[in-house]
UniProtKB/TrEMBL annotation:
GO terms for molecular function: ATP binding. Residues 3-231 form the ABC transporter domain. Gene3D superfamilies: P-loop containing nucleotide triphosphate hydrolases. It comes from Paenibacillus woosongensis. This is ABC transporter ATP-binding protein. Belongs to the ABC transporter superfamily. Transmembrane segments: none annotated. The keyword Cell membrane does not apply. Keywords: ATP-binding, Nucleotide-binding, Transport.
């Protein structure tokens, strides 16, 4: 099982959205990180065979997916960013409908739907209408539809947007258990979504792949670059203009800020261990080589 993205570029008119992206993936979870507008959804849509690259090639087990999309479609599960459900259907009706669209027989679909509702902890809600489901429950239905054909490639685009913290953790754990025998691509701009579950991280910035590494590898690159600096709140704006501030707290003695910088940002600044969040901010800044 192998997905290869080779020198992929995508333009809409004169606007280049992806620029020479190359990535080779094997089973496991890839966390695809990048700020809004970096090109993540565009890449996901191309991997899902909904769009074709302007140049470059994407192959699934050595077959060009732009030339032969059906080979991948049979093994693909996709949860798009703007996934919607029909509010007047029950999850079973909705999943039967999606299964028919994917060409599954009703008999095999029913068996699979029962299994998925069980795995996704929705069995007790199988007769309720989707319109009354919480965001997290709807996302679980979204994942169920993506898993109907037991896909070898599972693509989930910004799946935790709108979920509460508990639902977010449950969703992450679920993806983690699904990743042993398939390639899972999880696209997000939320670093904590992938911190604990993705052994590989790719960072897109302005259409370019600026990093393809492990969480540990990324954190290492920000070693000795994260500082705790304390300064009066009147200086906050000036510091924000000068430095990457990954977080700040107002205290009685001033602002306590985590600053990502190659150099000591103030005389009283002390070094802190870097986190993935700090390292990500560093990677998508000119300091980390992005521009
Ligand atoms: N069909 C299209 N026509 C023109 N421009 C597009 C089209 N689709 C995407 N874009 C542009 O491409 C850029 C990348 O968009 P994309 O949705 O891929 O980014 P993203 O990283 O997924 O960000 P977000 O998290 O905001 O969805 C944006 O500037 C967007 O406006």
């Amino acid at each position: 099982m192998e997905l290869k993205i080779e020198h992929v570029t995508k333009s809409y008119g004169s606007k280049q959205v992806l620029n020479q992206v190359t990535l080779h993936l094997k089973p496991g979870i890839l966390g695809l990180l990048g700020p809004n507008g970096a090109g993540k959804s565009t890449l996901m849509r191309m991997l899902s065979t909904l769009e074709k690259p302007t140049s470059g090639v994407i192959t699934w087990n050595s077959v060009d997916i732009a030339q032969h999309p059906d080979e991948l479609r049979a093994e693909l599960g996709y949860l798009p960013q703007d996934f919607g459900v029909y509010p007047n259907m029950t999850p079973v009706e909705f999943l039967e409908y999606m299964a028919a669209m994917k060409g599954l027989t009703l008999k095999s679909a029913r068996k699979r739907i029962d299994e998925l509702l069980e795995i996704l902890n929705l069995s007790n809600d199988r007769k309720k209408l989707l319109g009354g489901f919480s965001g997290g429950m709807k996302q679980r239905v979204g994942i169920a539809q993506a898993l109907l054909n037991d896909p070898s490639l599972l693509i989930v685009d910004e799946p935790t947007v709108g979920l509460d913290p508990e639902e977010r953790i449950r969703f992450r754990n679920l993806l983690s258990t699904m990743s042993s025998n398939r390639i899972v691509i999880l696209s997000t701009h939320i670093v904590t979504d992938i911190e604990s579950i993705a052994p590989d991280i790719a960072i897109l910035f302005r259409g370019r792949l600026v990093n393809f590494t492990t969480p540990e590898g990324l954190i290492q690159r920000a070693d000795n670059k994260v500082w705790l600096s304390i300064f009066p709140s009147s200086e906050l704006q000036e510091m924000q203009e000068k430095y990457i501030i990954s977080s700040s707290i107002h205290r009685s003695d001033g602002v306590h800020a985590r600053i990502v910088s190659d150099f000591r940002p103030s005389q009283n600044a002390v070094l802190l261990p870097s986190t993935l969040e700090d390292a990500y901010l560093y990677a998508v800044s000119p300091l980390g080589g992005a521009s």
